[in-house]
Amino acid sequence: MSERNGYQPGVPCWIDTWQPDADAAVAFYTELFGWEAEDTMPADRSGKHFMCRLHGRDVAAVASRPEVAPPVTAWTTYVWVESAEETVAKVVEAGGSVLVEPFDSLDGGRIGIVADPAGAAIGIWQPGSHTGAQVVDEPSAWSMSLLQTPDPEGAKAFYGSVFGWETEEFEGGITLFRLPGYVGGEPEQPVARDVVAAMAPADGPPSWAVDFWIDDADAAAEKAPELGGRVVEAPFDAPGFRRAVLADPEGAPFSVNQRKR
To answer: Please, are residues 47 and 113 in contact by the beta-carbon 8 Å criterion?
Structure first.
């Protein structure tokens, strides 16, 4: 288990999903992962904002879709930055675009949604009182985010310029994004502890996907359709993991990985 009380600039630190029916979505995820959820939206504001917790510590959020949100329901990965506005300027200079201009979040920080030159959306997070995921790298918690893109070389240049990420080739055609000096993950993991994300070439629309560790990938794939979701890729064996790709009732995809003993 990894408990966190903050991150550093350039490190993915949080995930959330904006949903047309936040109540239905949070029911799906709490049943699938065993999360507890609390609606933290202030009484004077419309919509829902569920803080999802594992062992009483924040792991993700499920919220009503705001008017400014992109129309496709998905999970968003947020990267910790010192200044949302300065990061937006870097994004534009590096050939990216701004999908949602930075705005004040519920916890006093500022967030925005940007896209790389190929169109993959990723969030930026200038922290306030909330300091990101407090539990990662354990069953039912977020483990890693993966960029799927038709332009890996362009992505290497973009994310290096905006977040300072360096790259390393890994097995199976995977590229690892590394942030020199960062120490995260777990000592026994098969990659360096400064790895902050991963990338794989893909022919379809570019996107960032989120991955959760799970105790039993086959059981999760069986349970997701019972809860209104679906199986995108049935469980299969990958190096070190048993893996499946699932989708929630609104179609937001995510993967689950069961570590092989």
So the answer is: no
In this structure, the number of other CB atoms found within 10 A of the CB of residue 204 comes to: 8
Distance of alpha carbon 218 from the chain centroid? 22
Q: How far apart are CA 97 and CA 88, in angstroms?
A: 8
Count of beta carbons in the 10 Å neighbourhood of residue 5: 8
Distance of CA 237 to the CA centre of its chain: 22
Output DSSP code: residue 172.
G
Separation in Å, CA 169 to CA 82, 127, 143, 238, 259: 28, 31, 19, 17, 21
Angle, in degrees to the nearest 10, between helices 217-226 and 22-33: 150
Is 200 strand, coil or helix? strand
The residue whose two tokens read 């200044």 is: 83
Domains, the chain, with CATH or none: 2-126 (3.10.180.10), 139-259 (3.10.180.10)
Q: Whole-angstrom Cα distance, residue 183 to residue 135? A: 15
Mean pLDDT, each 10-residue run in order, the chain (261 residues):
83 96 97 97 90 96 86 94 97 97 86 96 94 93 96 98 96 92 76 90 94 96 98 91 96 93 68
**Distance between CA atoms of 49 and 40, rounded to whole angstroms?**
6
Start-to-end CA span in the chain (Å): 16
